[in-house]
């Protein structure tokens, strides 16, 4: 009996110890667990490698109405891939300063599928946005940024791409973004009831907000409670009171990621592009990001410079400052991981390859470079050791299909012979000839050398320019003329990052030049 009693006491003691060890349950800075959305039809749509073609048809009367009041919903028809038809879809123009375009241009659009027809959905979505991305030539910033927030437990709409036609006019590629609405709230919150606000244009929490959905609170007292807590003079009491009305844990993540992606036009820096939700079950305000087209532009973006009042006031408290630094360090280690983000960028580039393979290969290379540089700067700003950069590898240009012939003068002959089994790019000069073979390669920033084996026969050229290698925009000094056997030629250059056009060139009044394909490559210096 005594043994049994001692065993029970020991078990209770161990349970009590386990139950009172939260400090050992999570790493410093690790966010609290969050509800992950249940898989549904929309997951398949956003994961698809297919780019849907959306044909939007707006009638004459509705066009006239939109031109008068571009934010008012009018009816339209949406055809997806000429297979599925959605009628009575609500559409209006969207966009703010810099991104707004009229109907006659390339407008950004919001589509609401159940606005005029109950329960109509598009792959499980009620609402979506078609962003013209006039301020984001990469068309990748939104998807990459949103994936980071979702990985870290901050609710935000997902992003993919669509090819859009409006009233028979081909508008090209758009970024398609999941809308903020009740369907979105149901995905992310156990209790979707509560107040959902639009943050407004360059407005802080003290400005009157537009209530997007759900129950109304008299005088927006839920927002005023956070604003009042942020202005308490005593830092310790301020931090305590903010925890009562603000989801502080999620807010640390929100602030950290906005600044980690250099989001200068978000709430934290510019009091812009954000949504607010106060779940009925917790009553604590949650910030959600939006409008992440202009991000990752400044690798040295300051992690501590803040403009949004709630962020500023929270980080001025000793508890807030410490928790924020720890959250940045944790996110840098576990979420903002260049190798993971690079894989996502490559996946997008592959998906967009049919649209313009060379362009998006260059875009991907530049974006990966910026992500790597930003990660290194974040590490320095929070005092984390910077991992050495992976060595850059040579890029082979040994496939004939990589090269395109170009003539800028004369009547040259371009062929791809294989004398003695040696595959070559060949140019024959006729009259005053300036001709080349060109290939485009995506490069990270840094010094490089373009090299390859070249042979000439009977090349005559004023100034001895002759045959040689260079990059587009680069100038070579001299070249190969007359009769020469195979010779290794090199051209050194510095790349700022992005697409670079590589050139095998002949400038001559007559003669032949061969460039051995298997020897052509770009080598990091």
Observed structural traits:
9-stranded antiparallel sheet; 525 residues; alpha+beta; disordered N terminus; 4 domains; 7-stranded mixed β-barrel
Write the layout of secondary structure elements.
Layout: H1 2-19, H2 41-47, E1 53-57, H3 60-68, E2 74-80, E3 84-94, E4 108-112, E5 127-131, H4 141-151, E6 159-166, E7 169-178, H5 182-188, E8 194-198, E9 210-213, H6 221-230, H7 235-245, H8 248-260, H9 267-270, E10 274-279, E11 286-289, H10 309-315, H11 318-334, H12 338-351, H13 353-381, E12 395-396, E13 404-409, E14 413-415, E15 424-443, E16 446-460, E17 466-471, E18 482-495, E19 498-516, E20 521-524
Parallel strand pairs: 1-6
Antiparallel strand pairs: 1-2, 2-3, 3-4, 4-5, 5-7, 6-7, 8-9, 8-10, 10-11, 12-20, 13-15, 14-15, 15-19, 16-18, 16-19, 16-20, 17-19
Helix pairs in contact: 6-7, 8-11, 12-13
Characterise the protein shown here.
The chain has 525 residues and is an alpha+beta fold. It has 4 domains: 41-182, no CATH class; 192-334, no CATH class; 338-381, no CATH class; 395-524, Galactose-binding domain-like (Jelly Rolls, Sandwich), CATH 2.60.120. The protein is built from 13 helices and 20 strands. A hairpin with a 2-residue loop joins strand 6 (159-166) and strand 7. Helix 6 (221-230) runs antiparallel to helix 7, helix 8 (248-260) crosses helix 11 and helix 12 (338-351) packs antiparallel against helix 13 (353-381). The protein is globular and about 90 Å long. The relative contact order is 0.08.
